[in-house]
Amino acid sequence: MDQLEDDGKIVREGNDVYLPELYYAEKGIVTSIQRLTEGSEEEEYSEAEFMEALGKVEDRLSMQYADSQQKAIRQAIRSPLMVLTGGPGTGKTTVIHGIVEVYAELNSLSLEVKDYDSEHPYPILLVAPTGRAAKRMKESTGLPAVTIHRLLGWTGGANYAHDQDDPVEGKLIIVDEMSMVDIWLANQLLKSLPDDMKMVIVGDEDQLPSVGPGQVLADLIQSGVIPVVRLTDIFRQAKGSSIIELAHQIKEGQLKDLTAKRDDRRFFHCHQAQVTEAVCQIAKGAEKKGYQPKDIQVLAPIYRGNAGIEKLNERLQELFNPPSDQKRGLTFGDHIFRVHDKVLQLMNNPDDQVFNGDIGEIISILRAKETTDNEDTVIVSFDGIEVKYLRHDLNQLTLAYCCSIHKAQGSEFPIVILPVVKGYHRMLKRNLIYTAVTRSKEYLMICGNEEAIRTAVQRNDVDRRHSNLAAKLRERMSLPDAGPLSLSDDS
């Protein structure tokens, strides 16, 4: 150990041993949180000023914020940093929009993009870890939203256009889906913010943690160094959704009506050997009702086996996009890609602005003799962005009719089909099922074994990752180890 430490391959701190890059990322986050907290004092808006601005926004948007939403907006406006958390249907998106509108009203800021240019950049930054999550932010607020990578000018590896020496410009940043952000990206983002920027961190603490190292959202909440607003009220438009009702049952570890037939969800009993056929039958039924393959997303937690992602993708491709003489195909390894296939990007590609988890459609396949590169080529459209893949790049793509629940985080789909069987047992935990269920906007179709789901929902032994971030934040900010500062709906 001494030799590894001398060689710079590990860092020791007390009884803890770190990889250097993780140690310095954790340390960097602590420094940035302290800097942002101390660099921007709480705003001194009077209650009368706040209520006047809120009233103008409500009149302009023809809506009225609930008391819990007002409380969240008020806290965000007054605090240098704040965490906003809550489950589906609790109004996080409404609050995000409200924070932006009220902040702009109080500071006499235009929200029109045309009023800004390179010398006077847009003052409010909306960002998310994935392209699909950023697109949802943009659609729900009507304001510009980008990925964190794009905001920071990431060009690959550890290369970013922005850091502590060249911070991003703006007055307020709101980061959505923070549970997906690992410790490296969180450190890069935080150190790239100017001292006086206000920050609102949004996420659902009950979802799966980031694929990469760390549990940044959970640690920030647990640290108690910044205010946490928890939204718990389910609003009227969400109360009619049995999917949201089921999600909150899962969150509480109880399933009251899992197998009941509802307008927006169904449960289909089947054995593991029948899962693939059951999924295809459900998908076929959705297609007959007019839904496109892009609207229907199958989610599964494992890749191998007859109920795994690979097998399900093969069968769903046969169903949705079978071979024909009029349709070009291209074999690459174990995959056959065809025009109109739904595909998933597997790695970050900053040059083309597509990132791990983005879903697109193959719109063209060119033979080598038809291209100037003299190599077979696949063209994929990602929400209108066309990306060219030469044959040697095709390891970046896979079929996306079925994808992992981790890959689906930050996305929503009109129809989610969720197979759950005992064969998934190693992966079955409450936060996995909760994350899968909350991906569905209109219909949720669960098939498989009821006992497997009930077992998963009872398994709340979340794998706590080794992290000292919360403790270091408390130590740096001179707070006792007393748990998070939480402002719930009824506080």
UniProtKB/TrEMBL annotation:
Keywords: ATP-binding, Helicase, Hydrolase, Nucleotide-binding. The keyword Signal does not apply. The keyword Repressor does not apply. Residues 312-382 form the ATP-dependent RecD2 DNA helicase SH3 domain. InterPro entries: Coronavir_polyprotein_1ab, P-loop_NTPase, RecD2, RecD2_SH13, UvrD-like_helicase_C. One of its GO terms (biological process) is DNA recombination. CDD domains: DEXSc_RecD-like (cd17933), SF1_C_RecD (cd18809). This is ATP-dependent RecD-like DNA helicase.
